[in-house]
Amino acid sequence: MPNVLAFAEARGGELRKVAFEAVTAARQVADQVGGEVHAILVGAPGIAAKAAALAEYGADVVIVSEHAGFTHYSPEATAALVADRVKGGDYRAVVFSASQQGKDLAPRTAAKLRSAIATDVTSFAVSADAVIVTHPGYTGKVVQTLRLIGTPAIFSLRPGAITPAAKAGAGRTEGATLSADPSAARVVITDTVLGDTKKLDLGEAPIIISGGRGLKAAEHFKLVEDLAAAFGNAAVGATRAVTDEGWRPHSDQIGQTGRLVSPDLYVAVGISGAIQHLAGMRTSKCIVAINKDKEAPIFKVADYGIVGDVFDVVPALTAAVQQAKQSSN
Amino acid sequence: MKIAVCIKRVPEMDVNFKIAPSGKSVDETGLKWDMSDFDGYAVEAALQLTEKDPASEVHVISLGSDVVQETLRKALSMGVAKAVQLKCDAVPFDAFAVGSALAAELSAGGYDLIMFGKMSIDGANGATQFVVAELLGLPLVHACSKLEISGGQGTARREIEGGGELVKFSLPAIVSIDEGIARPRYPSLKGIMAAKKKPLEIKPAQLGEVRLTVEKMELPPARAAGRIIGEGAAAVPELVKLLQTEAKVL
Questions:
Q1: Average pLDDT over chain A, rounded to whole?
Q2: A135, A119 in Cβ contact below 8 A?
Q3: A144 touches chain B (CB under 8 A)
Q4: What ipTM, to 2 d.p.?
Q5: Rounded distance between C-alpha atoms, residue A289 and residue A298, angstroms
Q6: What tens digit of pLDDT does each residue of A178-216 get?
Q7: Residue B178: is its pLDDT beyond 80?
Q8: pLDDT digits (tens, 9 = 90+) for B201-214
């Protein structure tokens, strides 16, 4: 009976939400093929304590590798570890998250194994002779259905594409033998620089408040930040025009060449809605647009539009959201 | 320093795509084509890395039918010294098939650095560079938003959720390039004229075995037409009500 392998991503000694998504996806595939779910967990010494949490989401076996060299992400040693495990077992599929780390690790592992690889998939199914996945392309304007030939099939799952589901697995823990020493790698991550760790990431925030050129200057992003703070569970994004101006860092850019996001609520503040930007946020569940130009293309995709000056509308909305939050508490 | 940049010709994305009758590709009627966005950043970054050293050279490589020569010429007009077309009728989606052809061409090139965009903007799979790195046995740093090369050593930054990773590596190496590194220059008239005389070699693509195929292409479900609920701050109470009762996000 073939099993399914999941890579459980951790950072700073903690499992990330995407780790549970990968294990949940592996559980779904394993239930189709009848095998077990094996999860791989790597990190600095102490990470083994997190294995039990993976069992709660369906991991039958947790393969743990603790090494000081895994304090930061170690691309080559981690890929070698996963590939060695695959070679030594009978795995129908290997599931990663298409997180920033998974976008590196999944194809790196697949290349080692000469396996079929599909990245950033939004759905998956196992048929008799192939794993079939859907994968958005063409800046989200086309959905591509891909057939992965051969065993194992390797794919990475778009963060948020599935909801982690608790389901008890056996959770036996095994150690892993490292064939590649993380300290001797050719590609070494010397430091992980984190911004404000309380800040929600654009890929994980249920609400995104995003600002465009209509804000006129970097300091006016305070309006956007205040609205995000009023919601509480919101991250701040920006258009390419804004990041090119240097008002916000490039990592905040949402669009064709930036982050592709699909939060529950996307509030576009002073954003005209260039195709480049729409490509990054058009799959948001609910879109609100505030712009003074009623002909702006953003209103064509906005569920709710307000035509008006962002400097009047946004502070009023911030106050109203604060009030709504208070009265619901 | 000798650098190769692998580039892909893709449709410009500012259109509403239609699906071809085969159901397995986009309808190419009326599409305009250009170098994939991230590949443009890679070409620009390569040119900037070599500008200060007259002994340096940047080459570009692309797979495709003869139409890809237009994209290769664009790179030549930006300042690249030589272009190679790996000729094939159609470029497969599969990273292993494409990566094998690129690795075969790159293996004897004596390159210090091989560059890619982090992914093509059409297929958006971001895996080909990993196949090339594995086949050539070279270290790979993926999705660099900053890159410095000095004395055979490289440092880079990769963006991660909520921050970045600082990376160290030695040449020869492969790097793939993310947004933020450099905006590609527009070819000058002088560059365009010069490009006509630069070498463009044509060789058959030695494609690898295909492990992944496109079964189907579809358009995503359309969004309902937008609706304007009011003007100015006076519309805020209505918006809040809709967010609470209809969208249920507040």
A1: 94
A2: yes
A3: yes
A4: 0.94
A5: 7
A6: 888 888 899 999 999 987 767 788 888 899 999 999 999
A7: yes
A8: 999 999 999 999 99
Q: B193 to chain A, minimum CA–CA distance in Å?
A: 30
Residue B124 · residue A134 · CB < 8 Å: no
In A, minimum Cα distance to B177 occurs at: A257
Name which of B15, B27, B165, B240 to mutate to probe chain A: the one with the most chain A Cβ atoms within 10 A of its Cβ. B165
Q: Please report the sign of the dihedral spanned by the C-alpha atoms of residue A30, residue A35, residue A41, residue A47.
A: positive
Chain A residues in contact with B164 (beta carbon < 8 A) = 192-193, 251
Residue A142's identity, in one-letter code, is V
Q: Are A234 and A200 in contact (CB under 8 A)?
A: yes
| Identity of the residue in B17, B165, B236 whose CB atom sits nearest the CB atom of A72 | B165
> Omega of the bond prior to B172 within 30 degrees of 0, cis?
yes
How is residue A306 written in tokens?
A: 């307000």
Q: How far apart are CA B142 and CA B125, in angstroms?
A: 13
Provide the chain A residues 223-242 that lie in CB contact (below 8 A) with chain B: 231
Helix (H) or strand (E) holding B46: helix B37-50
Q: Which DSSP state fits A45?
A: T
Looking at residues A150-167, what average pLDDT do you find? 93
- DSSP-based three-state secondary structure for A155: strand
**Identity of the amino acid at B133:** A
Say how far apart CA A53 and CA A73 lie, in whole Å: 21
Q: Which residue has the tokens 């085969």?
A: B22
> Rounded distance, CA B153 to CA B101, Å?
27
pLDDT tens by residue, A228-262: 999 999 999 999 999 999 999 888 999 988 888 88
Structure token digits, residue A231: 């919601």
User: How close, in Å, is residue A21 to chain B by CA atoms?
Assistant: 16
